[in-house]
Each structure stands twice: as C-alpha cells, then as structure tokens.
C-alpha cells in the first residue's frame, strides 16, 4: 500500500475544546481518517513543522493568556510540541510569548535556525532562534511596523498577516494588510543579524495577506485579501523587486462580498490556487511558462463555507480545503492536465478548521 499522507489541522478553539487534529489520507482509497485530537491549546490558528517531523509549532491567536499563576499576560503565544517518531503523538507543549496580540502566522527558515511570527494586532514580527533540539529560544528580534491604508475598518493600523522566508533563507517577506505593503528583511553576516531591506507597495486598499514563491525563483505571487486580487512581483533581482500586474480571484459576474485567504503554487510551477471566502471557492490560474503571467482557468466550489486554508500533497495529486464556516475538511483530486481540483465525495467533520499542514 502507498504510504499515508500525515495531515495536521489547526482550529479556532477554546482550551477545553479540540484545537489540533491529526488526520491521515490513504492515497490508495482516498479515505480521510482522524487519528488523534488535542485540546488544552487556545486558537492554534496556524501550524508549521520541521523537515524531520519531530516538532510541531503553532501560534496561539489570542490577545491574552494565562500566566500559570492565576493572572493573565497580554498578547499571544508561540507553542511547540515534540512528536514521537513511532506513534506520531504530541508531547507536552512549550510556550513562549509573542509580545503582540493575535499572532496569526509563522514560518521556519529553510535551515531551521530561525522561526518568525506575525502579530496581526501587534503591529510587529517576532523572531526566535531555534535550538539544536528544535525548541525555540526566547524571542531575539522584533520588527515594528507603522502605517495605515484607505480601508478605515481594516487598515486603521499595521496588520502583519504572514511571514515567508525566501527559498535561500536570505530574506524574510512580511505581508502587512494594514499598510498595503510587503516588507522585506535580510539576513546579515552575523548569526543574530537581520535588518530592513525593501518595501513593496501594493494598490491602496489591496490588503496583502499571503504569498507564494514560484519554483523558478523569478516571481512572487502576493494574495490580497481586501480587493481579492493576486499581484505578481519580479524576483529576478532580489536587490530590486518590481511590482507587476494584478488579476482578480473572482468571476467577473460575482458582485457580493468576498475575501481571499490562501495561495499556493503547484510543485511543477504550472498552476496557482487561491481560496475565496464569500464566493467559497478555489480559483485556479495557469502560469505562462515564458512570462509568468496568470490566466484564469476556473473556479471550484469548496463544498462548504469560508475556505480559510487549503493544502496540496507533496506529490501534487490531492488538495485538502478547510471550510472554517461549515466545520469540514474536503478532499479533491487534482486533474493533472488542467490543474483543476475534482471533488472526491470525501469530507471529514472538524470544528472550525483554519489551517491545513501536510507533512
């Protein structure tokens, strides 16, 4: 039998509810099976894992937390859990403050020596050195953002929404929804040296949320939440990033409210996928192999409400969509020629899923 895909789901949850769920996808049958559920962690809204699969990292998206002595501390937390190599069970968690409210995204450097966390309501990015045992050390670097955007309801302050390290680990890209900017930081020659490098301005009111690097290394595709667009950025010269065209993630005929959530690129670099919350779909785009420009090839219903996150299996054969608003994890098979996700008929009930991590 083909080896099962290991999947971890993060959710919005109270401490007395299930926050992290482990699932297996059996490729031979297309079955989804719950194998473990974990509570006692509040709002583990985004997850990451080291390459060896020995430690799981999560942000606790809160504005305060129990200090363990009967009081509360302001802000959120970074949690990390050891994973047993045989049973794949999580061990006791380690918790560190993020020194900012509502941390919502985290990312490891390719060399796994740093971990970055974005504080959505904290106007800051925290960076944690990773110890040899893969446990994060105390936060060592903080980047603060200042600025606003034209959308008074959503851009009244900076809102760092995601953190992505470049494939070479030299740069950190931070999508700030409140500032309409992608802030870029660079690694210095010293072990603990990171500094500001560049800032890419998006269309006013765009609200950059997530991004994806094309495997060619030539382009970045930035997903904008507020105006439901994808902006292409030239990465051919890292010292001079150039903003190119934008394309809508919605059908021309759609006029109701919708906000984007996640963006991914197929491993072969042929397709871009983006999720729409409101239209409740995965938008699929073909990537021109010569220019990198996108052209829409279709929209596929996620069979639920508010698809906040989705993931592709490493072999590119399956797509898993997390419908936050209808408590479901839905399985699609990728049609290899068109790249379109085809509904398999398989769904799994999970309360308020907001992150899908496939090992």
Give structural notes.
The protein is an all-beta fold and 359 residues long. It has no helices and 30 strands. It has a four-stranded antiparallel sheet with strand order 3-2-1-30, with no helix packed on it. A four-stranded antiparallel sheet has the order 4-5-8-9, with no helix packed on it. The chain has a four-stranded antiparallel sheet with strand order 10-11-12-13, with no helix packed on it. The radius of gyration is 19 Å and the shape is globular. Pfam families: Lactonase (PF10282). InterPro entries: Cycloisomerase_2, Haem_d1_sf, Lactonase_7-beta_prop, WD40/YVTN_repeat-like_dom_sf.
Compact description:
The chain has strands at 5-11, 20-26, 31-38, 44-49, 55-60, 64-66, 72-74, 77-82, 94-97, 103-108, 114-119, 124-129, 141-144, 160-165, 171-176, 181-187, 194-201, 208-213, 219-224, 229-234, 242-248, 259-265, 271-277, 281-287, 294-301, 307-312, 318-323, 328-334, 341-349, 353-358. The chain is an all-beta fold and 359 residues long. The mean pLDDT is 96.
So, CATH architecture?
7 Propeller
Major beta sheet, specifics? Answer: 4 strands, antiparallel
Q: What structural class do helix, strand and pairing data support?
A: mainly beta
Radius of gyration: 19 Å
Give the DSSP E fraction (strand runs of 2 or more residues).
over 45%
Descriptors:
Methylamine Dehydrogenase, Chain H, four-stranded antiparallel sheet
What does the secondary structure layout of this molecule look like, with pairings?
Layout: E1 5-11, E2 20-26, E3 31-38, E4 44-49, E5 55-60, E6 64-66, E7 72-74, E8 77-82, E9 94-97, E10 103-108, E11 114-119, E12 124-129, E13 141-144, E14 160-165, E15 171-176, E16 181-187, E17 194-201, E18 208-213, E19 219-224, E20 229-234, E21 242-248, E22 259-265, E23 271-277, E24 281-287, E25 294-301, E26 307-312, E27 318-323, E28 328-334, E29 341-349, E30 353-358
Protein name: 6-phosphogluconolactonase
InterPro entries: Cycloisomerase_2, Haem_d1_sf, Lactonase_7-beta_prop, WD40/YVTN_repeat-like_dom_sf
Pfam families: Lactonase
């Amino acid at each position: 039998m083909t080896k099962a895909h290991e999947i971890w789901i993060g959710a919005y949850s109270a401490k007395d509810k299930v926050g992290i769920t482990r699932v297996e996808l059996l490729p031979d049958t297309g079955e989804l099976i719950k194998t473990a559920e974990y509570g006692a962690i509040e709002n583990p809204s985004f997850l990451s894992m080291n390459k060896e699969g020995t430690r799981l990292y999560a942000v606790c998206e809160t504005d305060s937390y129990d200090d363990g002595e009967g009081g509360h501390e302001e802000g959120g937390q970074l949690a990390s859990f050891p994973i047993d190599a045989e049973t794949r069970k999580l061990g006791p968690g380690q918790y560190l403050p993020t020194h900012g409210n509502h941390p919502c995204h985290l990312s490891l450097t390719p060399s796994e020596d740093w971990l970055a966390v974005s504080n959505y309501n904290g106007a800051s990015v925290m960076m944690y050195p990773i110890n040899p045992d893969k446990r994060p050390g105390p936060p060592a670097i903080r980047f603060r953002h200042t600025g606003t955007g034209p959308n008074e309801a959503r851009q009244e302050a900076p809102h760092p929404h995601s953190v992505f390290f470049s494939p070479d680990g030299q740069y950190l890209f931070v999508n700030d929804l409140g500032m309409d900017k992608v802030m870029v930081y660079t690694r210095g020659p010293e072990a603990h040296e990171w500094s500001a490098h560049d800032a890419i301005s998006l269309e006013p009111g765009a609200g950059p949320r997530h991004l994806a690097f094309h495997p060619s290394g030539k382009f970045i595709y930035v997903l904008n939440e507020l105006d439901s667009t994808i902006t292409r950025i030239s990465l051919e010269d890292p010292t001079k990033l150039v903003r190119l065209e934008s394309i809508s993630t919605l059908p021309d005929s759609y006029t109701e409210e919708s906000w984007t959530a996640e963006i991914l690129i197929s491993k072969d670099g042929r397709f871009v996928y983006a999720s729409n919350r409101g239209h409740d779909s995965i938008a699929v785009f073909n990537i021109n192999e010569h220019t990198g420009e996108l052209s829409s090839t279709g929209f596929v219903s996620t069979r639920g409400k508010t698809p906040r996150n989705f993931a592709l299996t490493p072999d590119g054969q399956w797509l898993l969509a997390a419908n936050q608003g209808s408590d479901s994890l839905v399985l699609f098979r990728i049609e290899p020629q068109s790249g379109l996700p085809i509904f398999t008929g398989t769904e799994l009930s999970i309360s308020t899923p907001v992150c899908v991590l496939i090992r």
